[in-house]
Structures are given as C-alpha cells and as structure tokens.
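Researcher: Last one for today. Full complex below.
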Amino acid sequence: MNTPRILLIVGGGIAAYKSIELVRLLRKSGMIVRCVITRAGEQFVTPLTLAALSENKVYTNLFDLKDEVEMGHIQLSREADLVVVAPATADLLAKMAAGIADDLATTLLLATDKPVLAAPAMNVRMWLHPATQRNVATLRGDGVTVLDPDEGEMACGEFGPGRLPEPAAIFAVIEAALSSPLPLAGGVGGGPVSFSRSSADMPSPSPSRGREGDLVGQPDFAPANHRPLHGRRILITAGPTHEPIDPVRYIANRSSGKQGFAIAAAAAEAGAEVLLIAGPVPLPTPPGVIRVDVETAVEMAEEVRQGLPVDAAIMVAAVADWRAADTSAQKIKKDGSGAVPPLALAENPDILAGIAKSADRPPLLIGFAAETNDVIAHAEAKLAKKGCDWIVANDVAADPMGGESNRVHIVSKNGIDSWDRLPKAAVARKLMEKIADELDARSPRQPD
Ligand code: C5P
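Model: Here's the assembly. Have a good evening.
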C-alpha cells in the first residue's frame, strides 16, 4: 500500500491541543499528514506548531488556496486517503450535517470524496443536546464515522460524555481503518441490504442504507466484491434483553449494545449480509445492516432460529439468564402491609448453546463472555460448555459495560489471541479480519 495520507481538520476548542499529539503519532507511524485549522482552532493551537510537527504546510482559510494551480481545495480534499476531524466541535458537526461550506474546513468536508472520521469534543450538555444528537445521527446515516466522545471530568468543570477520545485511541481507529481492506462506516453501498429469510415480516432497510452501486455517504477503500466478507451471511445478537414482570417493570442488565452494533457495522463494511437481532437499545442501525428488534430472550431465540442458516453467528447479546415465571397483566400494587410480592423466576433458553446443538449450527459460532476476573479460565470453560468455536473474552474489570473501548482475548481450541485495549469499532474491525480469514480457510469463496 502507498504511504497513507491523512487530512486532519482541527476545530476550535480546548481539546485542540490533543491534535498535536495525534499529528505526532501519525507522523511517527510514517503517514503523510496535512493539517487544516479553523479560525476558532487557531485560538488554541498555532498553525506553526502543526506545520512543524506535520512537516507540511498548514492551511487556515480559503485564501491560502488562491493559488489554485498549486493546490486547489478540491485537490486538497481528495488527495488524502482519510479525512479526520479532531476535535469536531458542536458547530463543525452541525455545519457538516447541514452541508454548510462557509470556510476552508467545511468546504473541504463538503467537497471530499474520501471517508470522513470525526472525533467530537465539547461540553457535556452540548453533546447531549438533541440538536447535536440529531446532527450526529444524520452524519452517521450519511456514512461519516463519528466516534463517541470519552466520558469524564471536562475542562469546564462538568462531568460526562464530551471529552475528545485520547489521541492514541483516535490513532488506533485511523490505523485500523487504513491497515485493513475494510472501509470506514458508510462506504458506497455499505453492505448488501437483502437478507433472504423465510419470515415475511422482515423489516425494510432504512432509507440511509446503501444499495450496491448507490452513492451513499463516503466512498470505499475496496469495491464490494473485493471485500473480505462478500458473499458471507452473518448473524449478530446485541444489547440486553428485557424480561417483563408486569406492564411497567422488567428484569434487565447494563448492556449498552455498543460492541454488538460496532460488530454489525464492521461486518457490513466488510461486505457481509448482516442480520442484527437487537435487544432494546437506543442505537442507530448501522448502514447496510438488517435489524430485527426484540424485547425478551425468548423472542431473541426465535428470531435467531429464523435467521439461520448463516456462515457465522456472533452472539454478543447479554441475554438475561432468568425471566419472571409469571407476568402480571396489571401493574403489581403495594398492598400497604409491607409484604413483598413473590417473584418466581424461570430460566431463559441459552440461545448460543441451543444453536450450537442445532442442525443449522453455523460453521463459525462465536460467543462473548464479559468477565471481571480469571478471564481466560472462565472463557475456556465457557467455550466447552456452550459448544462454540471461539469465545471473545471481554475484560470488564477496568471498564464496565457501556464504555467505549474493550480489551479482548479470543479463546479457541487453537489457543488464545490477546489484543490491546482498543475502541469498540477497532475491536469489531479486527474481529472481522479474523473471521474472514477463518471462513476463507474453511471454505474459500468462489470468484464472481
Ligand atoms: O451470559 P453468559 O456469560 O453465559 O454469555 C455467554 C455467551 O452466551 C454470550 O455470547 C451470550 O450472547 C450467549 N448467551 C445466549 N443466551 C443466553 C445466555 C447467554 O446466547 N441465555
């Protein structure tokens, strides 16, 4: 591969100082970096610093490009392999979502034909504001990869999501995107949208999804039939299940669904037909993915059964182990006596173990295991107990469910493959590479 080229757009905000470290990491790894800094960004880092570190001219406004013979804005926006916006402020995200091009940075973002990765940073209330969330959803629907910000104490003294992800984490996403043949989310065509099932109530794909050949979102690194999972069918379960006690109460767990959704996104990007069976989570459907929403473990088990056969199934859902043995049709009321109503539980079906024994067992069956201690030993035991091929053991001691990164060990009968802590999107992409290799080794794909 040629030396990767990154166009880094530095927005305004206190987190802009972290872009300096990002440039250093990118240069250290040998990538070519060109920086564009917004007027607000210049209040926090100087073009001179970025120029020194990137060893390239830094562009600050459209007039820098008045010599269109040297480098026009169209050329600047397209010579890169990847456009990275870090920090992406609320204002920049809003302009990107609206297609506003009123300065050099936004003009480049509108003119580019390359994948775009945005790393947001802003005050927690600005991030949580419905307007920003709407803009992020629009951008993701358009195929822009918008990272979730980190959570923690902010420069303004508030606490919550809004911090720029650490430069090393942004670098890992960039590296994973460039080093794999996989495109970033929302490449042209995403993944195929048809997933033939016998069930007549298959939900129709959302309008933002791409059909092969449609120009949706950003372009790909590889044409569809060159993608590593082209022609493969993959089923993924994700999120928690909710087990009703009465019409207003349920048993659940803390699963956010983020890792499962990232895996579904990466599978579609890799060209697979993806069926995502999701418990109740407020996450957008990744481009190119067919999603079936369920509430309970029993519903999830039935949808999985209907979704088979597939080439690989990845069971990421944190299925509730038990459900209420009897569900009350009316809200259970306190009777004033202080007596606690009995809650009898029934065991839920083990979906993974069930399909491992079924006639439709996928050739590659993968389970997840969230562990806080003796991670490998528990995963090895689970591998045997569930009858699957791999267990992705998920070390949740340092970072409980709902975080943005994961440290995983892939445990199989062939040994243990331990990965560094990575953003969930990067874990998903690496997993897709491993799955593609495994499926190719078992049954090479026929050329089109
Ligand atoms: O909850 P447990 O640690 O047993 O989950 C391990 C794996 O089994 C996960 O992949 C999970 O999705 C799957 N599982 C399942 N059905 C259950 C419980 C777990 O498919 N009822």
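The chain has two domains: 5-179, 199-442. The two ends are 24 Å apart (CA to CA).
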